[in-house]
Structure formats: C-alpha cells, structure tokens
Amino acid sequence: MLQQVLVTLIVVLAALFSAWKLMPARRRLQALRALDAWSASHPGLSAWRQRWLKPRIVRAAGVGCDGCAANDSHPPPPR
Amino acid sequence: MDAAVESKPESRPLRIALVGVPNCGKTALFNRLTGSRQKVANYPGVTVERREGERATPDGRGLRVLDLPGTYSLNPTTLDEAITRDVLLGRLAGTPAPEVAVCVVDAVHLPIGLRLALEVKRLGVPMVLALNRMDVARRRGVEINIARLSAELGVPVVATVAVRRGGADGLVELLEAARWSTPRAAPAGADAAQMPDQVRALLAAAGYSPPRANPWFARIDALLLHPVAGLLILLAVLFVMFQAVFTWAEAPMDWIKGAMGSLGEYTAAHLPAGPLASLLVNGVIGGAGNVLVFLPQIIILFFFILALEDSGYLPRAAYLLDRLMGFVGLSGRAFIPLLSSHACAIPGIMATRTIPNWRDRLTTIMIAPLMTCSARLPVYLLLIGALIPARHFGPFNQQGLVMFGLYCAGILSAFAVALLLKQFGGARQYSPLMLELPDYQWPHAGNLLLGLWERVKIFLNRVGGIILALMIVLWFLSTYPAPPAGATGPAIQYSFAGQLGALLQHVFGPIGFNWQISIALVPGLAAREIAVGALGTVYSMSTAGDDLAAQLQPVIASSWSLATGCALLAWYVFAPQCLSTLAVVKRETNSWRYPLIMAAYLFALAYFAAFITYRVVGAMSPGGVEL
C-alpha cells in the first residue's frame, strides 16, 4: 500500500514537472507572474518569494524572449 | 572625459552596455565582468541577442552589464545590429538606455573599431574605450599611446585582456570609481563622410603602428582556403572527428554501462517486488540510464567542435563553402547559423538574425533542423552500435563511417531543400559573404573546459530533468492498466502505451517500425533523444525479469531487422520531432505558417526516406521485408 502511494506521488510529480517544462516560455512566465501576484498578498510567503520565485521569474523572462520588443518583464524605471 | 563625470551619488546599479565590432571579445569581457559563462567563440556573430549580468561593487551600487550583438556601424543592415542600435538609443522596449557605453575595440585591429567608437561617441552616451586583446597586440608589435588616444578621443581609454584573470581590473576600477552623468542628447558632430579622416587622425595621434603580418598565417591560409585542398582538409577533419567519437569513447561508455547494470541489479535485489522496484529499475534506470551512456561520445564530439571554433578555423570553413552555398541559393552568412544548428537548431535559428535578406533568412530557418543536432546523437549512437558491426577497414572504423554518412546526409538534404526552395522562389541576386577572418590561435584551455562543462551540464540537466520525468510517466502508461485475468501476451500490450502503440503501428507499420518504436516516437516529440530512454523503458516492460538497464543495444540487435534499424536512422535524419524548435520558428517568423510548413515537410521527408530505406534494405537483406 505504501509503495502504491509513493509511486502515485512520484508519477503525479513527474507529470506536473513534464507539463511545466514543455509549456511555452511565455505561458510559463505568465504562470510565474500570477504566482508572484498571489504570493505578494501573503506576508508569510515573502521570504520564499524573494529567494525562490523572483530569481525564477528573472530567468524565465530571460529565456529566448529578452531581445523581443514584446517582452515587458523589465519596465523602465521612472526617469 | 570630464564632461561625462559628475559627483552625484546614485543608489541603483550603473547600466553599462558593451558595444563593439563582431569578434572583438565583448562576450569574453562580459563573462569577466559579471562572472557569467556565456558562449565565446573565435568567429563573428555568436551573440545575436542582448544579455544582461550584474557585478557587485564595494560601494554597494553595483554594475548592470549588457552584452550587445557585434556591429560594424550604427546604421544596421541586420536584425542583431538593429538590437545594438536600439538599446544604445533607449528604443528597445523594456531596456532603458545605458548610462555608460563601453566600446570594446580589438587592439590588434584598432582602425576597424575606432570607426564604431566615433559613431557611439556621437550619440552622446558617456563612453569608455576598452582596448581588448592588448597582450596579442603587444606580441605582434602593435604600438598604441593610450594616454594620447584618450586625450584625442575625449573619453577614458583602458587596456584589457578579457580572457585572462584580472585582465579587466583597470576597466572595473574606472567604472566603479567614476560617477557617470545621465545620457545627453546627441551633440552635433562630424558627419559620416568625415569619419575615415577622423580615424586616420586618431591613429596618427596615438602613434599606432599596425600588427606585423604573421607569415605562418598566410601559409596556413593558402592551404586551408585552397578551393580543392581546403575542401579535402575540411572533409578529413570532419571524418577524423567522427572516427574519434566511436574509437575513443568505448572504455568510458563501458564503465557507465557497467555502473548502470550494477545499480539496476542492486536496486532489484534490495527492494521488495512491487511497483516501486519496477518504477526504479525499468522506468528510471532502464530509461534515463540508457541516455546517460552516451555522455562520453557527446563530450568527444564537442571537444572537436569547440577546439575548431577557438582556433579560428570555422570562419575559414564558411569561406570555403560560400560558393557551394551560393549555388544552392543560400547566403554565405547562413554558414554560422547552420553550423550552430549542429549543437541545437534553436540557437542556429536565432543566429539567422545576422542574415539581412528575409528570403535568405527564411530558407536558412527552414533547413536548420536538417543539420544533425546533438539530440539526435544518442539515437544514432544507439542504432549504429546495435546494428553496424564494429569492423575496421585499415584505420577506419565502420561505425564512424556510418556516423559520418548520417551527418553528410543531413547536410546534403539541407542543400537539396534549399535548392528546391530556390527553384520555387525564383531567381534572386546573390549576396556575397563578407566575413572578417580572425587570427589563428591555439584553443584556449579555459574556453574548451568551460564549453565542455556547459555541454555536460545541459546534457545531465536534461537526463535528470525532463527525460527522467517523461520516463516515469511513460513507465506508468506502460504498466497500467494491468493485464486482464488469463492474458497471455506481455503486460505492456494491455497498457495505455501498448494500446497507443497498436494504433500508431497502422501509420508506422509500412515503414518498418514495430509497436515499441511507435510508442517511443510519442515522448520523442518533446526532444529527439528522449526516444532512446523511451525505448529502454518500453523494452524493459515488454521483456520480463531481465536486467535490461543499459543493455538496450543487444536487445535491439536481436529483435530488429537491419531494414527496420536503417529505416529508423533515415527517419531521424529528417525527423521533425522537436516542439521547442517549432516554437522558436514561430517566434522568429512571427507566424504559425512557417512552423506548420516545416513540420509537414519534415514529416513527409522522414516518412518517405524511412519507407524507401526499409524497402531497399529489406529487399537486399537475406530475409526480405517482414514485420
């Protein structure tokens, strides 16, 4: 029974990871941003947000699309 | 110089852009400044996008460094050059204009770089001139009075050696110490017509003496660029490379196979029989382990490619092939993108941005996936190892010959498709290749190791990431549902994967693929090399109780006909299975039309080639065609 539960968990995680990795980069960035917006309203998650989520958003924004004019991941700071 | 410096304190990182002509060492300097490990090569056109990195400074402000594609002028003719101009002018959405432009100039070829430096200076962006490769310049007798050049140009000038530790310290000190003003509006300056005079005046003021010509370089070029001898040498180099892939890798491959086999046996012996043991032995070790075996061969192949890159030979190969490429309707500029596609089609397709003509660029994009990318390597290596005897003809290894043939088949088919596109597209004006040939140099050990390490990391990340995850999913699909009571066939036939394989065999049966291959082609859509792991998992599940982990080759050798194996090899020469490549084509062409056309034509070619191969090899084999 324990083996069944463990295997189910591994397979579900593997399926989720595969879906995440095969998702188009733009969709992945949108999903990360949505997660970021949601976690911003939960103060308990702020450390995780800074340490784990933010670097991934920067990385996802930099994959392939950083020379593209449609990329708005780095809004220009006020001058 | 003073006008660009002020004492206003700032808290956000100083934005710096590295700009310069192609192959002057911008990316090497970027890596030195930021600790990054971006790809560096001894030929122009490696960087086609902007890259960003940061460096901490003692005052806590930090430097944000942008590496820009190389350009000869701020009047761009290609997309990558336009990116450089737009970033410098603050026109690229999401990228604020830099506060300082570091104009990187190859000190050996100072006149070429100074022209661009003058153009950048005219923009009004505060600027520093980095005289890179000063070590090589000094060795070759180049003399530059740096203080005089700085005074005459009106900007700070520092000497750098980007490939050496500490080689950019002077530049860093200057960037950290000074307080830079915000960019000014472009001042009125001399127009472009006066530039050559200005460059000559600057060179005279700086006491510049050109580099001594190296007589060896001229002699080597006379041989390597000879229209006949040069091509023969190029073929010989490629030939030796593929021979080495098979002869040198045998021992380390055996070690990995042995380790995987032992790991599989150990796991099976120490875990109680059940789904967990099956998952680990058949899914993880039998799947991902079978891909890991090819690591030594991939390292050897990339060692050769990186060494050739760093030595300065590859642009010469581009020069040699220019006429041939022009004959099939390709621009000579297509060589670098097509060469990059041998690592992966994605950077190759992105590198087509250096091609100014849209039709030339589109043709190059459409044929880039026909180059043999590294993801095909595990499939080729598996099938060649299983089906082709390791016989030697004198110094030649038969398996290496087949591998060489497959690479040639990819290149020749790309040329054939380009020729066809030329016929459909009508006549066009031939645009000759303009390429600056870099100096020869011994491959830099640091660059080689870094490049190899990057390839190893990419490969291991894929094996331990997406390949492993998909193998686990495939194991589930191959295991469930369990066979009904009284079932006589292998359990996998009753599973989801087995049912899917039976359906797909209606499509792939005529080209000789059995149901196991048909199943493996499905996860192989994500990336080609995943098909190898998938075959490992499927065969583990369809043969009961053996230690299949890392033993896939003997199973293939005994259960496939030669015709089936050759048909699968032919399929993979053209196979369109790489969703990431199709996604990049969509992005680069801004249309779904071209990736759909690409997928359709590659599928048709792959099916046709596999069908013909299966029938011809089958007819020539003793048993004929049977499945």
Give an overview in words.
The complex is a heterodimer of chains A (79) and B (627). By secondary structure, chain A is an all-alpha fold. Chain A has a domain of 39 residues. Chain A is 68% helix and 0% strand. Chain A contains three helices and no strands. In chain A, α2 runs antiparallel to α3. The longest helix of chain A is centred in the N-terminal third of the chain and has 21 residues. The termini of chain A are far apart. The C terminus of chain A is likely disordered. Chain B is mainly α. Chain B has 26 helices and eight strands. In chain B, the strands form two sheets. In chain B, strands 2-3-1-4-5-6 form a six-stranded mixed sheet, with helices on both faces. In chain B, α10 packs antiparallel against α11 and α25 runs antiparallel to α26. Chains A and B meet through α1 of A and α11, α19 and α25 of B.
Describe the SSE topology.
The complex is a heterodimer of chains A (79) and B (627).
Chain A: H1 2-22, H2 25-40, H3 46-62
Chain B: E1 14-20, H1 26-34, E2 51-55, E3 63-67, H2 79-88, E4 100-106, H3 110-122, E5 127-132, H4 134-139, H5 146-153, E6 157-159, H6 169-177, H7 195-205, H8 215-224, H9 229-247, H10 250-270, H11 275-292, H12 295-311, H13 313-327, H14 335-340, H15 345-351, H16 358-367, H17 377-387, E7 392-393, E8 396-397, H18 398-425, H19 445-479, H20 496-508, H21 515-521, H22 530-542, H23 552-559, H24 562-574, H25 579-589, H26 593-620
Parallel strand pairs in B: 1-3, 1-4, 4-5, 5-6
Antiparallel strand pairs in B: 2-3, 7-8
Question: Which characteristics define this entry?
Answer:
heterodimer; A: 79 residues; disordered C terminus; B: 627 residues; mainly alpha; six-stranded mixed sheet; two-stranded antiparallel ribbon; 57% helix
